[in-house]
Amino acid sequence: MRKNITLEELKSSDYENKTINQEIKSNLIARIRAKQAVFEGLFGYEDTVVPQLKKAIIAGHHINLLGLRGQAKTKIARSMVELLDEYMPIVKGSEINDNPYEPISKYARDLIDEMGDKTPISWVHRSQRFFEKLATPDVNVSDLIGDIDPIKAATLKLPYSDERVLHYGMIPRANRSIFVLNELPDLQSRIQVSLFNILQEGDVQIRGFQLRMPLDIQFVFTANPEDYTNRGSIVTPLKDRIGSQIFTHYPKSIALAREITEQEAKISPEDKENILIPNIAKDLLEEVAFTARKSEYIDSKSGVSARLTISAMENLVAAAKLRLIETATDKTTIRLVDFMSIIPSITGKVELVYEGEQEGADQVAKLLIDSAVESQFDNLFPRISKLEKEGEKTTYTDLIHWFENNFIELNYTDTDDEFFSTLKSIKPLTKLIEENVGHLDSQDKAFCMELVLWGLTINDKLDRTENSTAYKFDSLGINQYFNRK
After folding, report:
1. Is residue 205 pLDDT above 80, yes or no?
2. Strand runs (DSSP E) across 386-442, as ranges?
3. Taking the model in full, what pTM does it have?
4. For a designed S-S bond to 43, which of 94, 259, 349, 392 qualifies (C-beta 3.0 to 4.6 A apart)?
């Protein structure tokens, strides 16, 4: 916190008066020259979005971030705060962050005229220079720009045309700050029109009274491409005044998606220490989202947010933590059966098409998990043939035969010792794991044992049934075989 000073002291200091565009631009250039990270935590955007963002800032443009939901648009906007100076001087008491060198409100002008170099100056931290508004159909001009306050007019005995009776909206209060307007197409066209002059000339019109207020604001808008047709559009004159439109995208690889999830998921240090998550389990979780984005049951235009895997990871850890509490043990490992706990994270974050509605949200979620399992299985193990010649032995023959005389139940609430002892009792499975993924660490190999069983059931080689506490794996009986076919 910086102490208040006077205008005279400000003039004699090393403070350099700059517009917000100049301020962000100079700090960006300084970071680039110093080889410092500029936008941290934007995984996958280093070679796509970030270079465009840097150019837009250097050009001094207002920015429109265009992309599907869950593509870090708001995170990008918030990261720009770090490019502001740590503290900014304002005329003390100003509602709209008046620049002591270029005051625009009548309050600040009158105060400087009265006190001159003795005008008190206070400081605003950069964390208070970020304003965000979600554009909804009920947003009006008063919310954004302002309105006349009849109580002020009556109390001060001033006409409505006097600037002193104005109640400032969010945008004037964001003077010399970053203002983010999310989901811009949802804003009514007549409200969008009110932004024209602010972006271009700095005029503010309230109730027919035109005020010359050269507001100094860095605007960042966000929009979803689907909104242009489904819910509204950005009016052409406003779009024309936005200097740069930057497209965002989902992570293009499982590795990048994992980094995003690990960064954003809220998992306590205690849980990270006590709950082990195999690497293959992390990959499988991301594969669910990748599968959903190309699923015939899900509306691809709506998108599948990165928040799906973030929420799913939190649910996975919660399921494991519940097991620790119920079994009174200290440590546990994420299992494939735990993935049933992510179903609420899927059903709440995808938009189903007609075919998906017919299947039902829960069933679609289970199909996505199965498809993700199949994809991971194919990456690690030999392909399962749909049909084999009689007497022909495959990688999975001994394992399938084992289940002709045996079955197993994998309980969610078993301790790790109980759970993995059950899996290791299947000798053909243990052998298959060592032959194909023996190079993996013990956690991944244990997870792969479940992956194999799951893959065999998806390919109709074994039967899998579920109850409230366990999964049962058994031989596929002849009747079940023909029913599945």
Report:
1. no
2. 408-411
3. 0.85
4. 259
pLDDT in tens, 28-65: 999 999 999 899 889 999 999 999 999 999 999 999 99
Best CA proximity match to 254, nearest among 219, 276, 233, 281: 281
Per-residue tokens: 194: 């009110």
The rounded mean pLDDT for the chain is: 89
Assigned token pair, 344: 């609420």
The strand ranges marked E within 49-145 are 63-66, 87-91, 120-125, 130-134
CA–CA dist 232, 183 (Å, integer): 10
Query: Which residues have C-beta within 8 Å of that of residue 188, sequence separation ≥ 6?
Result: 137, 139, 232
User: Do β-strands 63-66 and 218-223 pair in parallel, antiparallel, or remain unpaired?
Assistant: parallel
Phi, psi of 86, rounded to the nearest 5 degrees: -65, -40
| Cβ atoms of residues 284 and 373 within 8 Å | yes
CB atoms within 10 A of CB 475: 18
Give strand pairing partners of 122: 90
Torsion angles phi and psi, residue 9, rounded to 5? -65, -35
Averaged pLDDT for residues 58-77:
93
State the average pLDDT over residues 295-323: 93
Q: Return the pLDDT at 208.
A: 59
Residue 450 has pLDDT above 60, yes or no: yes
**CA separation for the pair 383, 367 (Å, rounded):** 20
Q: Do 382 and 436 meet the contact criterion of CB atoms below 8 Å apart?
A: yes
Q: Alpha-carbon distance 309 to 400, whole Å?
A: 33
The set of long-range contacts for 391-399, using a CB threshold of 8 Å and a minimum separation of 24, is: 395/432, 395/435, 395/436, 396/432, 396/452, 396/456, 396/461, 398/428, 398/431, 398/432, 399/426, 399/428, 399/429, 399/432, 399/452, 399/456
Give first-to-last CA distance, the chain, whole Å.
72
Provide the residue ranges of all domains of the chain, joining segments of one domain with +.
5-247, 254-484
- Identify which of 475, 478, 337, 454 has the alpha carbon closest to the alpha carbon of residue 406: 475
* 5-247 fold: Rossmann fold (3.40.50)
DSSP state of 298: B
CB atoms near residue 341 (< 10 Å): 19
Pick 208 or 33 by higher pLDDT: 33
pLDDT digits (tens, 9 = 90+) for 122-180: 999 999 999 999 988 788 878 888 777 777 777 777 776 677 777 788 998 999 999 99
